[in-house]
């Protein structure tokens, strides 16, 4: 019997793919900008992801070139969509 549930976004790649999916569903405000809270809130509260999972997912997506994170951390831009897994 397992007392701990597996977390669907424990993998940085899984979290990153979900964050890119969320970002793709949001209308950019200007110049392709998507406010970080527009993907942060659904990830944390609707999907029940954790803060560290969110951070790892953003970092993974930036490293892979899927998202561009502004140096202020206030918005992202979609660079290119990840290839299907």
Can you offer a commentary on this structure?
There is one protein chain. The protein is mainly alpha-helical. It contains three helices and three strands. Helices cover 44% and strands 11% of the residues. It has a three-stranded antiparallel beta sheet with strand order 1-3-2.
The helicity comes to 40-55%
CATH topology: Arc Repressor Mutant, subunit A
What structural class do the secondary elements suggest?
A: mainly alpha
Gross CATH architecture: Orthogonal Bundle
SSE pattern = HEHHEE
Largest sheet: 3 strands, antiparallel
How many structural units, i.e. domains?
A: 1
Low-confidence stretches: none
Work out the helix count.
3
- Spatially, the strands of the biggest sheet line up as 1-3-2
CATH C-level class: Mainly Alpha
Q: What is the end-to-end distance?
A: 30 Å
Whole-number mean pLDDT: 91
Strand content is: 5-15%
Tally of extended strands?
3
- Described by the principal axes of the CA atoms, the overall outline is globular
Radius of gyration: 13 Å
Question: Which features does this protein show?
Answer:
Arc Repressor Mutant, subunit A, 11% strand, 85 residues, 3 strands, 44% helix, 3-stranded antiparallel beta sheet
């Amino acid at each position: 019997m397992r007392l701990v549930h597996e977390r669907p976004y424990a993998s940085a790649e899984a979290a990153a793919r979900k964050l890119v999916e969320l970002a793709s569903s949001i209308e950019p405000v200007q110049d392709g900008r998507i406010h970080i809270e527009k993907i942060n809130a659904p990830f944390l509260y609707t999907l029940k992801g954790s803060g560290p999972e969110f951070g790892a997912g953003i970092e993974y997506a930036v490293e892979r070139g899927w998202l561009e994170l502004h140096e202020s951390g206030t918005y992202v831009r979609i660079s290119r969509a990840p290839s299907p897994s």
